[in-house]
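Notes to self after the Tuesday call (sharing in case useful).
The group wants a holo model before anyone commits to mutagenesis around the pocket. I volunteered. Ligand is zinc ion. Logging inputs and output together so the record is complete.
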Amino acid sequence: MLKNIILLLGITLILSCEGTKEENIGLTTITKWQEDKKSAISITYDDGIINQFTVAKPIMDKYQIPGTFYVITGKIAGSKKGKFIGRPKAEIIQETKLIKTNKENFFERASLIAFTGTTEAIDYHSRVGSLYEAGKIQKAYQLLDEGYLKIRRGEIRNLDKVIHHDNVVDTTTWDDLKVYAQEGHEIASHTVTHPRLAVLDEANLLYELEQSKKDVEQYLGKQYTFSAECPYGTENERVMEYAHKLYPSLRNRMPEPYLEEINRSSKKSPETSEKEYVQWQRGPLTNIGLEEMKDWIDRCAAQDNIWLVLVFHGINGIGWEPKTDKELEAYFKYIHDRRDQLWVATFADVTKYIRARKSTKIESVDHGKSIQINISSTLDPKVYDVPITLKTYIPKNWKRISINENQIISTVATDTIGNYITYSILPGNKEILLREGI
Ligand SMILES: [Zn+2]
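Result:
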């Protein structure tokens, strides 16, 4: 009789009375995001511009939001500087008079022009790279010939100087960056000089990727060489092949069968994706209003599969497409106020979480008075050091649950399968024992 009445009252009531079905006791999964949040957000900055550290970072610190800063290592005092690797400069420049740019000499010339010492020459390098990546190969060759003609005529002076991208007054030191890293921010490589990597020859391409990695490792430590960003958001296949061998994670591209990547220029809605995870990159440029930026957050919080990756550059008039401190203050507060739903973490940490979740195997045994959970993973626990959150279904009468005798969980939640608890552990191979606590 009582059971019939309960049935009439609907499914929720039945569950709250019956608890977890016996076959589901011990069932354990890793939640999609850390602490069972709805979605993830990473806030990233490119180019190591001074105001990112002196204006944006203090606002983030106030709201305890960690950021990822991709820095151009060659402009930080103490690092190895940018340089051209190859034949003597004069020889190559002289040759441009006799032989037009072609498939054979293109990469060498496009590499060298970035190191001829003027901002105009850097601009030629950058525009040549842009044409090349857009598939306009002949136009890229012609533009390079035009640049070298100017150098030969002395219209662009050939100096022995290294010019860095957006290198306005910047006094950030490795000591400063070390402090920021210790505060919980991620500081990572954005190459030595910020070139168009797609038009560099192998030696110069490798130097940009390897040397910046070495400097980050020397001044900050190996853990900051996990992720990197190749300049101009390049997705060039040749560059990605080299870069993926050196860095476990790139903001440029992260090919995984379970992850869809929507880059900054794409208009695709993340809601239309059927993948388990969607990395949705957005660039809050100067003319993008706060309402649109807030809408990204709301859309992220409304789904369970979106990882919103924001890409900031300039702040308060310094750097490309700057935003103001007032906008950042309002925006970061908006994110902070929604933290019960959103996991805000560095680019490296979100990558590590997703990969750990996808490559960890879990088996559990219900012993009646205890639940034993065996966890195994093929990933290196020294690298994959971000806690993963487990969700385990427990018997209905368990109210306080001890985990390995050293942690007590007393918040029991209920869903359509039954009663469960969530708790975070470090990934790696281990055994966990849950008991009803005292
Ligand atoms: Zn950049």
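Two things stood out.
The longest helix spans residues 202-220.
The two ends are 35 Å apart (CA to CA).
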